[in-house]
Specification:
- The complex is a heterodimer of chains A (393) and B (262).
- In chain A, strand 2 and strand 3 form a beta hairpin.
- Chain A folds into 2 domains: 73 residues, no CATH class; 236 residues, no CATH class.
- Chain A is of the alpha/beta class and 393 residues long.
- Helix content of chain A is 23%, strand content 30%.
- In chain A, the strands form 5 sheets. In chain A, strands 6, 8, 9, 11, 12, 15, 19, 21, 23, 25 and 27 form an 11-stranded parallel β-sheet that branches.
- Chain A is built from 4 helices and 29 strands.
- Chain A is elongated, with a radius of gyration of 35 Å.
- Chain B is an alpha+beta fold and 262 residues long.
- Chain B has one domain.
- Chain B contains 2 helices and 13 strands.
- In chain B, strands 1, 2, 3, 4, 5, 6, 7, 8, 9 and 10 form a 10-stranded antiparallel β-sheet that branches.
- The longest helix of chain B is centred in the first third of the chain and has 53 residues.
- Chain B is elongated and about 105 Å long.
- The chains are: A alpha/beta (393), B alpha+beta (262).
- The interface between A and B is large, with 57 and 59 residues.
Chain lengths: 393, 262
Amino acid sequence: MIAHREAGTLTIRQAARSGSVLLSAIAALVFIEIIAIGLIALAGRASLSTTEYASRTTARIAAESAVRRATALWDERAVGFPGTGSRFTVPWATGRLPDGTRFAVTAERLRRGQLLLRGSAWSAAGVSGARAEALLTVSAIPADAIRLDFHSAIVAGGDITLLDGAVVDGTTPDSPPSPLQTADCTDPGPAPPVPSGSPRPGLALATGAILTAAPTASIIGAPGLLSAAPGASPAAFSRLGRIPLTDLPAIADRIETGAVSLGSRTSGAVCDTTAAGNWGAPDNRADPCFDRFQLVFAPGDLTITGGEGQGILVVAGNLVIADGVRFLGAILATGQLDAGAARIDGAVRVGAAGSRIGAAVHFDECALTRALTLSPAMRKVYRVSDRWWLPPW
Amino acid sequence: MSSRESAGAGRPGFTLVETMVGLVASVLLIGAMAAVVIAVSHLERLTADRADVVAAGALAGTVVAQELRVLDARSDGFAIGRDSAALRAFRGSAIVCTVDSTAAEVRYRGLRAPDPAKDSLLVLAGAGVERAQPLDGVGVGASSCLTRPGETAITLKPGTGMSAGDVVLVFERGSYHLISGALRYRRGASGRQPLTADIFLDDSSDFNPVIGRTATGIAPETTAVRLRTAGMTRSGTGTVRPMVHYVPLLNIPVPLDSVPGS
């Protein structure tokens, strides 16, 4: 009994001592636990801060990219040539990214030609996600402004030489050049290019430019030769209408460099628009490429070695056209034009002094209309000024 | 009561050796726990400080990116110094509905309502022409100006030189500063108001213009702004690695985007 009591006393004392240590340890553990939870919460806060920053950035870039996509793939015909005040969603710039970020672009026509594109994006990352907007103003390509620059058979910004056999004819023929028919010359869009009217000069020269003509060269028009012509200053050749040439690589339907031989290419009964040198088939109504027009841009010198083509040709450099080439549409060369015995129906603008022309250049309203309305690039949009991104309010 | 029983009841406690061992063990245990607690507390403060620095850096990056990204570096009074960025701070935009001899009816949306005491107007007419003019007055708009969600119909005075379809940007002159440990905003000649916690190291936080040539034949110009923020922990025991934000400017003469194969 005594031993039991002694043992009992000892047991009670040990239990009391063990309890105090245990309580201390538990208290310390609880304290450390609280600190650890705090640390986790802080780490979570830092992580959340970073996630929300990433989410905001994702949303902003998605909104801007959506607007860029809307402009890059813009097609006036696809959106039905909307009128002033109309507002619509741009289907090819609306969707969802693989990470769940949603984006959409709405367009509003502010006035004839001018569009306001508003891109919106919602990122689901973070606690409440993030939303961002981007605002951009662009303008439909003004075919009428381009058309007005091609007001004569040839507009030259510098001295020009007409070689033997050259013909520069500013008169409009009674009927379009074969095989075109009058019905081919109508514009499918709501804003047809403004005709330049008559009478029309054959050759329009910049102030101070000198013409040298071989005896057999002919200039026809009213007047045949116009000096100090509008749209013939050096600055006027750095743009196609109002579009700076620096924007053309993105707008053009085709980029060409070096030398090219023209000719229609088909794949079965379909025009092969990707084939090299396929600039359409102006002389064959039965050809699948008869209605194939395009805006062709050459960022440097270009030589057309032969064949036939149509559309709008812009050369940021010198252009050489070999004998026998046939072209229907508009040509702008910022450098010199060296044209052999070729035939051009439409109009030509050449910027630099020193051009030598032996070709027959006939102004043709129908050819210009077809080139300016049927080239897919002419249904795109361009930036009117360097301030085209606006604060997204 | 036996002798054994009385001896056991009269036992005073532990021996000296037991007590000493117990005390030493307790001191060691408490010391170890205290060290852990102090270390964990320090870690918590450090983590909290770093989280604050990261949050402040992210906030600064967001604010600066939002403000600078759409500026035209050549015409918005844009001046980047090491510790400051002066600019036109756009606060809203409007579309002109109608114009008469005194005012323009517009659809407006923005960060706040236009205020003639603070704001000026930048009128973007068609064909890329833009013109800055003072804002003389703001009024309630007419119902004839059909607003979209998020827009308010108001009048802006004067309406001279505006026409239907013009875009009008409302802006104030302002500057951002990285001084006294925080990103601060100063409108006009007023005081600099902090936008972040006072946590940045002035010597290691700065603005820097990124100069580049955007296309062949075009003179080098500001294409982006680099914002660097480095923070110091409040305990002063360490710095946080600098955060660097690049803000590419959108309104620069780079070639347009194209989509390959389209």
